[in-house]
Amino acid sequence: MSAVYLLLLLLPLISAQTYHWGACPTPKLQPSFNLQQYLGRWYEIEKLPASFARGKCIEANYSVRKDGTIRVLNAQFYKNKTRTAEGTAVVHDMREPARLGVSFSYFTPYSPYLILTTDYTSLAVVYSCIDILRLFHVDYAWILGRSRFLPYETVSYARELLMNEGIDLYRMKATDQRGCKDN
Ligand SMILES: *[C@@H]1O[C@H](CO)[C@@H](O)[C@H](O)[C@H]1NC(C)=O
Ligand SMILES: *[C@@H]1O[C@H](CO)[C@@H](O)[C@H](O)[C@H]1NC(C)=O
């Protein structure tokens, strides 16, 4: 009874996200993931879920800081301005190198950042899921490219991979990468 009550309290908070009944799916991760090869710039091709207020030209640059931590620099163009956010990625357990955590502030816990597959040179498929009492979960997914546009076949391959892991792509949406400033 109390769990159901808590659920009713939590639902309005997360209704803007993609939530589903049951625990998080446990997708297969990229075997022997190599973080060094993953560093550098990735462009967001598609994202789950698509929110209303969001920018275009979304990209992230992963690099190693002098102290050895992994820097994540997100950038997007929104309301006529390039906006950036800096975060940190960690590998919690070297035995599972494709299971990262990313945080954008000291005050927020690391969110899961799972690399389901990547060839390092064109495509990466990333998934994140948070269990709430194992009653339901909120999830996020990204199809990332080394270029702003990926061939249709590559995107459908990535979508199929996510769907085969039981991930609901109903609210997946393409990111606008047209007319972006390149440097
Ligand atoms: C990514 O960030 C690193 C460190 O700041 C920088 O040296 C590098 O040029 C950036 N790469 C791209 C593609 O923006
Ligand atoms: C957006 O920025 C450009 C270049 O800085 C400027 O010319 C234009 O007037 C701006 N548009 C708006 C709606 O602020």
UniProtKB/TrEMBL annotation:
Pfam families: Lipocalin_2. Belongs to the calycin superfamily. Lipocalin family. InterPro entries: ApoD_vertbrte, ApolipopD, Calycin, Lipocalin_ApoD, Lipocalin_CS, Lipocln_cytosolic_FA-bd_dom. GO terms for molecular function: lipid binding. GO terms for cellular component: cytoplasm; extracellular region. One of its GO terms (biological process) is tissue regeneration. It comes from Stegastes partitus. It comes from the Eukaryota. Residues 1-16 form the signal peptide. The keyword Transport applies. Keywords: Disulfide bond, Glycoprotein, Lipid-binding, Pyrrolidone carboxylic acid, Secreted, Signal, Transport. PROSITE patterns: LIPOCALIN. Residues 34-176 form the Lipocalin/cytosolic fatty-acid binding domain. It is found in: Secreted. This is Apolipoprotein D. CDD domains: lipocalin_apoD-like.
